[in-house]
Amino acid sequence: MAEGFTGIKDAGEFGAAGDGIANDTAAIQQAIDECSLTGGTVLLSPGTYSSGTLFMKSNVTLCLSKGATLLGRPDPSLYPHIAHNIPSTLDKAPWRAFIYAFEQENISIKGEGTISPGGANQVFQDNIADSPDRPFGIHFVRCKNIRVEDISLVNSAFWVQRYFECEDLAIRGISVFAHANYNNDGLDIDGCKRVIISDCKIDSSDDALVLKSHGNRPCEEVLVTNCILSSHASGIKLGTGSVGGYRKINISNCIVKPSIAESVHHPAKVKKGLIGINLGNVDGGCMEDINISNILVEGVECPIFIRLGKRNQTAKGIRAAPSAGTAKRITLSNISCADCGPVSSSITAAPGSLIEDVIVRNVRIRMARHSPSDIPRIRPAGNLNQAGFKFMEGNFENDPKGNTVPEKADGYPNARIFDTILPSFGFFVRHVKNIIFDSVIVETSVKDKRVPFVLNDVFLADFNRVSARNGVEVLVVNK
């Protein structure tokens, strides 16, 4: 890795003022360029370094000392639109970025300092989803051997971090707080291979930890452990972009809890968060060999959401998906969800497809908010309504098998996708083959008129040591 090189170049030696006023872009970039010739470290000593886009190079470590802040300058002209010309449903136009790298290797960002891309500045305020005019905080594309360690990242204009089709990526001990704008995802791993994420604390207005695959490559061989995740959207998420899909994913020993942020920069306006564990494959890829274990979830609107849909987005160079893709060998174990609701958990596929081989073991869910009147009924305007944030009253008493729950095969994969109250307060399961519920408790804080489980078009279901409390003691199965 880059930190193995011994040369240290202080950015101040290249003219960086570090006073928060001067434009230090050229000085820091010169230090990076020269350091890459032999390999080594670019050091930011204590101070505030105001900069536009920086291009990381191979064999370079960017080290931010304690007390050093790398601050994004509020001047859009300093952030060029960069086209990498790799097929992707997200990259339909060139993006901007604060720190960018393309096809570099052996690069690191580390230290006890802070990277603040300046997303709170008015020049980057934009409520249009996926606007390419808002820079990513860190955007690494097809890079190899990357380490990001110990730094703090604050308030990006768009996603705080996106690693796209990278290999051998290690992210450890970082802190993220991003509540300055819409689409403030904390950490996005997009079509990457061999990834380790550990000991991170992420608090973001949009999804906290996200695995995606907007391009043809799957996101695979990913290990996540010992993280604390907070979001006004999803704490742990696979999706939404899922062209290549995901396989061999292991996420364990994490806590999902409400954000400490006072403001909510998310169209749903749910302060405690929308979904705890959100697994979505909707663009024709695979979702296979997924293991989620030892997770504590608190306060979210929906505890668990698993979806195989058929949105099937495409773009130039993206292979057309012939079907809804696959979702199989998914295990959820040792998961405790408290103070959740009112949207119940669901495991559903689009008509004509099946989620296969699911194990839900040693899971406890406590729904504290469950009345239909608890559910927000406002659909946001403009381009922020792709999740369909509106609910009908539903008629679960007259439809105990959930036959009138709309399929929404091509809908945005969010727990509110069905636009109705689900007929079960525990799990609604539809179009699934071979599912095991073992040592599962679902309960409500007060009496709920709905049944705990509804299975609709499910083949080979096994229930072992399943308990429902404060609900109607009925299990409804419709095969």
Protein described:
- With 479 residues, the protein is mainly beta.
- It has one domain: Single-stranded right-handed beta-helix, Pectin lyase-like (Pectate Lyase C-like, 3 Solenoid), CATH 2.160.20.
- Helix content is 3%, strand content 49%.
- The chain contains 1 helix and 33 strands.
- The protein has one helix at 25-38; strands spanning 7-10, 19-23, 40-44, 47-51, 54-55, 60-64, 68-72, 97-102, 105-111, 114-116, 136-141, 144-149, 152-154, 161-164, 167-172, 175-178, 187-190, 193-198, 201-204, 209-213, 219-225, 228-231, 234-242, 245-256, 275-281, 286-298, 302-308, 326-340, 345-349, 355-367, 424-448, 451-471, 475-478.
- It has a 33-stranded parallel β-sheet that branches.
- The chain is elongated, with a radius of gyration of 23 Å.
- The relative contact order is 0.08.
- The model is unreliable at 1-5 and 374-393 (pLDDT under 50).
CATH architecture: 3 Solenoid
Q: What gyration radius follows from the Cα positions, in whole Å?
A: 23 Å
- Percentage of residues assigned to helices: under 10%
Q: What integer is the average pLDDT? A: 91
Number of domains: 1
CATH top level is Mainly Beta
Largest sheet: 33 strands, parallel
Structural class: mainly beta
Uncertain stretches of 5 or more adjacent residues: 1-5, 374-393
- Helix segment tally: 1
Sequence-ordered SSE layout with sheet pairings:
Elements: E1 7-10, E2 19-23, H1 25-38, E3 40-44, E4 47-51, E5 54-55, E6 60-64, E7 68-72, E8 97-102, E9 105-111, E10 114-116, E11 136-141, E12 144-149, E13 152-154, E14 161-164, E15 167-172, E16 175-178, E17 187-190, E18 193-198, E19 201-204, E20 209-213, E21 219-225, E22 228-231, E23 234-242, E24 245-256, E25 275-281, E26 286-298, E27 302-308, E28 326-340, E29 345-349, E30 355-367, E31 424-448, E32 451-471, E33 475-478
Parallel strand pairs: 1-3, 2-4, 3-6, 4-7, 5-8, 6-9, 7-10, 8-11, 9-12, 10-13, 11-14, 12-15, 13-16, 14-17, 15-18, 16-19, 17-20, 18-21, 19-22, 20-23, 21-24, 22-24, 23-25, 24-26, 25-27, 26-28, 27-29, 28-30, 29-31, 30-31, 31-32, 32-33
